[in-house]
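ZP: hey, is the coenzyme A complex queued? I don't see it on the tracker
AM: it wasn't, my bad. submitting now with these inputs:
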Amino acid sequence: MAKALDGVKILDMTHVQSGPTCTQLLAWFGADVIKVERPGVGDATRGQLRDIPNVDSLYFTMLNANKRSVTLNTKADKGKEIFKRLIEECDVMVENFAPGALDRMGFSWERIQEINPRMIYASIKGFGPGPYEDCKVYENVAQCTGGAASTTGEIDGFPMVTGAQIGDSGTGLHLALGIVTALFQREASGRGQRVTCAMQDGVLNLCRVKLRDQQRLAHGPLTEYPQYPNGEFGDAVPRAGNASGGGQPGWIVRCKGWENDPDAYIYVITQAAAFAGLAKAIGHADWLEDPEWNTPEARLPKLDAMFEEIEKWTMTKTKFEAMNILNPLDVPCGPILSMKELAEEASLRATGTVVEVDHPERGKYLTVGNPIKLSDSPSDVDRSPLLGEHTDEILKSVLGMSDAEVAAAKEDGAV
Ligand code: COA
């Protein structure tokens, strides 16, 4: 079956996590992603966090599916010549090097436009223009500088980063949207354009509700935060523990087995529309007649006490039993699922969100497939390429180089 981005050629200069998540998504949508890597070295993640000696790491294999790998020294003269030819042939170039690296190679945006005016040139950097624009950035730096860490954590505790890679994978997602939007605009304009996404901006975009709360603070306490009504609010949005962050109070409560199982918990949201069912289920039908409890406003100053009562009930049930009882009552809730449980979850396997892939050197491994499902563009997951696996194929089929030219490029150390 045809795929949404069939015919789109991507010159993928990305490395580590943020850029590769972007180009992996585009590959799943059908783009031909040509990953350019330094000869003999490759993307640093091939060798990071290795679980099997001398085999591409899961870090690499889970971020580079469905791509082709060409090795190319883009700092050597012959390598630059080949790189220029690739720019001529491709529709999109994506990179997430430290600021200025592509310019230092001699490929500024102005130069790229000269070579190929239809080129969409997309970059991820840690920061946008401003005092930090020259800084190198990794995931947790972005979480800290984008507002996630200051608003995450226990109410009296340390700032906290989250396991979700909102700085890297989050920004990769943002960039992918920028690229397909630019491809769409090119249909009408005939021109390429520059697409940039700063990790700080991407994280702040995902923390939008916290900037909302910052402004609400000027008009009084944040009544849905655990600090209300007994705690103090300062002049910045505080950390809110596991409070829901929306208009409907929620919290994580313990379930049966919590003493030995670190994930025996469930998140319960006391949505007003489903409160009657929840109250009855936990043995508190009395709340429904009691003006101290039967409105959201009455409950707001005593959310702690309310969740303690809910927890007394959830501790008599496993997280899945609690889910099975509360779901039919329309109570929004969700068990805390471990990575082990997610890896084994049959429904995620069935939808292709968790996929088993076979790799010639490491054997079978699990990866997360395309979470975005298109009805007319299936996303099969193919294993990541070995370093330089497609060098000859790309030089010949994309650039039309002869066997002798490929051999000369190798002799030269360019590929
Ligand atoms: N041929 C020749 N040289 C190559 C090459 C190739 N095919 N591919 C990369 N290089 C060179 C680069 O040009 C650069 O050289 P320079 O410093 O002389 O200009 C060098 O390799 C290393 O690139 P750099 O990006 O500086 O890598 P790093 O390991 O020092 O830094 C990051 C890693 C992630 C901190 C940095 O790339 C960065 O801040 N990126 C932007 C933000 C980002 O995406 N961060 C998240 C990563 S998950």
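AM: back. The first strand starts at residue 9 and ends at 13.
ZP: great, adding it to the tracker
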